[in-house]
Every structure is written in C-alpha cells, then in structure tokens.
Amino acid sequence: MAKQADRRKSERSGGASKTALVFSVIALCLLLGVGAYALLSFRQGTLNATLIRLLKLAVLACAGLSLLALICALVAFFSRRQRKGAAVPALLLAVLLLVGSGSAIWVYQYMFGRMQHDAAFRELSAEDLHVAQTGENGEVLRESTEPSTVLSYEEIAARLKRTEVKFDTVPPEELPPDAAKLMEGDAPEGKSYLYDSANRVSNYLLFGLDERGASDSIILCSVDRAHRKVKLLSLGRDTYAIIPIFGTYARMGYAYVWGGPELAISTINKNFCLNVQDYIAVDFDQLADIIDYVGGVDVELNEAEVRYLSSYGSFQVGRNHLDGKAAVGFARTRKSTADDTEINRTGRQREVLVSLMESVLDMPVTSYPSFIRNCLGMCKTSFDASTLTEIAAEIAQGGYSVEQEALLEHVDFWGGIMGQEQFFYTVYDLNRASDYIYRYLYEDLYISGYHD
User: Fold this and answer.
1) What pLDDT sits at residue 4?
2) Least CB-packed of 75, 120, 198, 238 within 10 Å?
3) For the segment 308-342, what is each residue's pLDDT rounded down to a tens digit?
4) How far is CA 96 from CA 15, 24, 62, 65, 76, in A?
C-alpha cells in the first residue's frame, strides 16, 4: 500500500513536471512566434497598431503561462526527492520566460507610464471636430465657412468665463479692400476628388504652445504611406479664420487657448476642409527640455540670427549646435531683421523639428526607453500608446523622406495690422489654400477642381 501511495505521489509530481514543461514550451513558442512575426512585419514595413497590441497580449500571456509553469515546476521539484524528471528544465525555462516577459512589461509601462493621453478628446465625434467628408466617388465636400450665428465680444467673454479676453473680432466687412478681394477669391471650375487609396495618408496636428496657452506654432504633419514621405506644413498662427463655436473671425492661433485642442482642430478642419482627428501639443519650455535630453540640435544661422541669439551664447554664421533654450529662442524668433517674415519664422520651427527628429534617430537604442518616458510626460496627445508606437515604428523602419513647407509660401495672401488690438493678420482665399494643402498632402491621389 505504501509503495502504491509513493508511486501515485510520484506520478502526480511527474505530471506536474510535464505540465510545467508544457506551459513553458507553449509560452516560449507563443513569444517567439509573435515576436518573429512582428520583426518580419517591421522589416517589411507592415507593422501596425493591431500587431503591436497582439504582441503586447502575447507578452502578457507568456508571463501568465510562465507563472503557472513556475508554480507547477516548484510543486514537482519539492515533491520528488530523487529523480527530478522534467522539473528542473521546466523550472529554469519558466524562470527565464517570466523574467524576460516581466522585463518587457516593465519597460513598456516605464516608457508610457507618464503619457498624457487625452482620453476625453477621443470621445469627440467627427461632427464636433468639423472633419471633412467625402461624397460620391470620393468628392471632397467643402462646407461653407459662413457662420450660422455670430457671438458678440461680451458673449464670447462670458462663454470663456473671463472678464477680459484679449482678441479681436474682425468681421469680413471690416477687412481692407485688398484683403477682402483676395479672400473672396475665385470659385473652382469643377469638383475635387480623392482616390480610395488616399486613406493611406494620415494627417495630424502638432501644436507648440506659448506661455498664454495659444498655439504659437501650428504644423500639419502627414504620414504618407503611399509615397513613403513624412510631410510638415506650417499653418500660420496669424491666419484670419472663422472660429466655429463663436461664429466670428479671429487669429487662428488663439483657438487653442479659447477652447483647447478641440476648438483648435475644429477651426483648422473647418477653414481648410481637413480630416484631422489627432494631435500632439507641447509648450515651448518643455520643448527646450526635450531638445536638451537628446543633446541639442543642429541648425543653420545667418548673420541676423547670430546677433539675435547672442544672449543665448556665442554662435557663428553657418552650422551651429544649439541647446534647448537657444533652439526654442531660434524657433520663436520674430524680428531678427526689419524685413523678417512669418515664412522665415515657421521655417525655423520646422528646421528645429527636423533636426530634433534626426537627433532622436541617432540616439543609441538603450536611450529610447527613458527618452520616450520623459518626452511623453511633457506632451499632451490624443494618441494611445499602441498607435503612437505604430507611427514611430513606421518612420523608424526607414524608406521615408521628410519634406517641409509653409502654406504662406504657396498661396497669395494679404498681410497687415488690423482690429482694435492691432494684431497682425494674414488673409487669403481659404478655398485656394485648402486646395493647395490637398495637393501637397495627397499628390497624385487628389484631383483638384481648379484647372490651373
């Protein structure tokens, strides 16, 4: 009887050893299989958010199976005093897998733990954000920018819950004749269309915020998978634009401080007939910290810019390496000379951004976890971790060229001082501006209604 009991006990412990080994092998195969598939997809340029989420679930499942395998192996190991059977290899494999998967989970949480994800923004509808719609055969439906209601200065101030709001309401009838004529523009000769493959172009907005919370820098960022390009297009903060919920025209850069990213994006979508639904925002003090973290950026300085930046250090005409404060000062330079322009200023902003991207790509891989953690802790974004990882992985996979331009370089505009506050405005035909943006973003995937 005693021998039979020992034999049954041995069989149970042996069964535990086999179970532990089976769990460990399944966990190993799962992790290797999904990991190999993800690596292959990365090399082929097809890694996406769905696969990233699947990989994350595989790592979690591996951790769970490894823990079960470890428990079973320990039971088998301490139950049998003689032959350990499969308990030892099962125990070692379970420990290795548990440490590996646990480390991966910890690194992921470490990188994205401080991410300021704007979950409330994700609940907004396309209608809330004035996302452009397409009709039959991909026709671009350009809604009118004419307001249905126009709030007074006092009504706007009350809605913002402020006693003083520093901005102008400049109705179209108060525009100078040249500005009004330019804004009226010419109607397109035909309809505009997007091909079905235009969905391979994703558009986002990057906001650089000043000390008031206004968007001092507005850059439309496009990831063009069809042409393998990343495109950066500066949209002037001084643009004379309709503010949807107020029904009045004002400087586009102030929409962010009046209504956050929701109002800023709905304003840009409405005025330019765009389909943006995601953003990243960072204030300039934080941008300086991000630049310092990657070790600074390299930019070209002319003589006027060297003089303007003299308070930040000693620089020379030509290529210079700038730290965070100097780089932000360079990006925000408004009047390096009497004839300095908004086009020059936005060009400096994009130059800093591109140089920052290059510095990030040159960083050692071991620096990425702490950089991502610190960078995301300083930014506010509508992206979730998986989607942001997908975009970064797409660009890191290589084969993407970077293009950058300013809208004002390619559309006719009137620029001047107007309004009670004497702000500088740029006024142009919004339909023409929208058409150029579509041509730039979509290239041969867009058919313009203008025939020139």
Assistant:
1) 46
2) 120
3) 899 998 999 999 999 999 999 898 887 666 567 77
4) 21, 10, 11, 12, 18
Query: In 3D, which of 53, 424, 7, 2 has the Cα closest to residue 252?
Result: 424
CB 448 within 8 A of CB 439: yes
**CA triple 236-241-244, angle to 5 deg:** 130
pLDDT, position 12: 47
* Residue 160 backbone phi and psi in degrees, to 5: -80, -5
118-156 pLDDT tens trace? 988 989 999 899 999 898 889 998 877 676 667 776 777
Phi, psi of 42 (to 5 degrees): -60, -45
Q: Work out the widest C-alpha separation in the chain, in whole angstroms.
A: 109
Mean pLDDT, rounded, of the chain: 83
Long-range contacts of 226-230 (CB under 8 A, 24+ apart): 226/197, 226/198, 226/200, 226/201, 226/443, 226/445, 227/443, 228/399, 228/400, 228/401, 229/400, 229/401, 229/402, 229/403, 230/395, 230/400, 230/401, 230/402, 230/403
pLDDT attached to residue 145: 67
pLDDT confidence of residue 433: 94
The confidence score (pLDDT) of residue 317 equals 93
Beta bridge partners of 209: 215, 283
Token readout for 272 is: 């330019």
d(CA 320, CA 223): 29
CB atoms within 10 A of CB 265: 28
Residue that has been written with the tokens 């507005």 in this structure: 218
Residue 370: beta bridge partners?
none
The C-alpha atoms of residue 32 and residue 34 are separated, in whole angstroms, by: 6
Calpha distance 313→198 (Å, rounded): 46
Of 46 and 74, the one with more pLDDT? 74
